[in-house]
Amino acid sequence: MSQTILVTGGAGYIGSHAVLELLSADYEVVILDNFCNSSKESLDRVKTLTGKEFTFYETDLRDRQGLATIFKNHSIDSVIHFAGLKAVGESNEKPIEYYENNVVGSLVLFDEMEKAGVRKIVFSSSATVYGEPEKNPISETAKLGHTNPYGRTKYMIEFILKDIQKAKNWDIVILRYFNPVGAHASGDIGESPNDVPNNLLPFVTQAAIGVRDHVTIFGDDYDTIDGTGVRDYIHVVDLVLGHIKSLEKLDKDKGLFIYNLGTGSGVSVKEMIDAIREVSKKDIKVVVGPRRAGDVGEVVADSTLAEKELGWTAQYNLKDMAESSWRWQEKNPKGYA
Ligand code: NAD
Ligand code: WQD
């Protein structure tokens, strides 16, 4: 019999791609989202793309009653917990909202899971928990740091999960994502920022389509191949397949596991802009500006542990990431709006 997975934040960028892959792999899916950074449209499209049904609850993570109802109505095997606020800059302006939404929301979810006897979870963490890395590539045993309230929420939730695992014997996979980009091959679901994008890739595709006048490169004086920031971009479909491997891991092995999900290869800002120029055949205007506060030169994952223990490696390359991002942008110039 197929397993039932509760996906929190399932209408969001990564969550919608995860729901699509879970349905394609014949999992039963129950979704919780409050649409604070997404819309129903993503889920409608997932339904059309897969031709499969799922159950959706418009509920806030912090709504105990709402969560209790979900656990009462469904026999949930595992939870994939994506729901959260994720903008680094905004978290500096609104720390209370970030701690309340991400940390309190996660605590309510964990409490209701425990009450319902659901003790398996895959949690969306982030490379941000490494703060300023001492060396690259970064392995899971590297020293942790945190430079902003958003990063601290991830750091705190990781430690909360470790304590729950010890006390209550949960089975947990914590996934530290590097830089998720790209879209489903159809170009029908993708990243749809509500406002001016914080991340590089949506900004570049918006500049290519003419929504933005130019891209500002945040510093070209880093100690990297061309002076611009280097990151480990990972295709969102590869990323969500790592979650399915994690569910499979929890079927076999008990305890708490932490994995980086990245490709192990660094790509500079200039290389990423060139990749989008190539696939879009658009001339993208670029202006070099100062470094962005809090940025570091290079962040690249050592993902060998995920390869060894999950049997997972990233399959998509930079061209795939650029092509799928551009297809999504071209088909949806205004996102889901
Ligand atoms: P997203 O904003 O597109 O998706 C998050 C979803 O959670 C949204 O649909 C939002 O409406 C929902 N949500 C937020 N707070 C909620 C609440 N209190 N109750 C119910 N629903 C709520 O973001 P994403 O890029 O898909 O990220 C998913 C997860 O992955 C987040 O936890 C994020 O921190 C983490 N992550 C993202 C990145 C990235 O670059 N995209 C990198 C590392 C980690
Ligand atoms: C990538 C590179 C910028 C925009 C952030 C979060 C991290 C994680 C992923 C959630 C950097 C440069 C960017 C622009 C630019 N999210 N850049 N011009 O900062 O690596 O990571 O998203 O967990 O926590 O911090 O990603 O896409 O913002 O930047 O030159 O307009 O592009 O300086 O070198 P980042 P990013």
Q: How would the blueprint of this fold be written?
A:
Elements: E1 4-8, H1 13-24, E2 28-33, H2 40-50, E3 55-58, H3 64-73, E4 78-81, H4 88-93, H5 95-116, E5 120-126, H6 149-168, E6 171-177, E7 179-181, H7 200-209, E8 215-218, E9 230-231, E10 233-235, H8 236-252, E11 256-261, E12 267-268, H9 269-280, E13 286-289, E14 298-299, H10 304-310, H11 318-331
Parallel strand pairs: 1-2, 1-4, 2-3, 4-5, 5-6, 6-11, 7-10, 8-13, 9-14
Antiparallel strand pairs: 9-12
Helix pairs in contact: 1-2, 1-8, 3-5, 5-6, 7-9, 7-11, 9-11
Unreliable stretches, pLDDT < 50, 5 or more residues? none
Q: Approximately what portion of the residues adopt beta-strand conformation?
A: 15-25%
CATH hierarchy, class of the domain at 4-181 and 233-263 and 300-314:
Alpha Beta
State the CATH superfamily name of the domain at 4-181 and 233-263 and 300-314: NAD(P)-binding Rossmann-like Domain
Count of discrete alpha- or pi-helical segments spanning 4 or more residues: 11
What is the radius of gyration computed over CA atoms, rounded to a whole number of angstroms? 19 Å
What report would you give on this structure?
- With 337 residues, the chain is α/β, with parallel strands linked by helices.
- It has a domain at 4-181 and 233-263 and 300-314: NAD(P)-binding Rossmann-like Domain (Rossmann fold).
- It is built from eleven helices and 14 strands.
- The protein has helices spanning 13-24, 40-50, 64-73, 88-93, 95-116, 149-168, 200-209, 236-252, 269-280, 304-310, 318-331; strands at residues 4-8, 28-33, 55-58, 78-81, 120-126, 171-177, 179-181, 215-218, 230-231, 233-235, 256-261, 267-268, 286-289, 298-299.
- Strands 3-2-1-4-5-6-11 form a seven-stranded parallel beta sheet, with helices on both faces.
- Helix 1 (13-24) packs parallel to helix 2 (40-50), helix 3 runs parallel beside helix 5 (95-116) and helix 9 (269-280) packs across helix 11.
- It is globular.
- The two termini are 38 Å apart.
- The model has no long low-confidence stretch (mean pLDDT 97).
- Nicotinamide-adenine-dinucleotide (NAD) binds at residues 9, 11-15, 32-38, 60-62, 82-86, 101, 105, 124, 126, 177, 180.
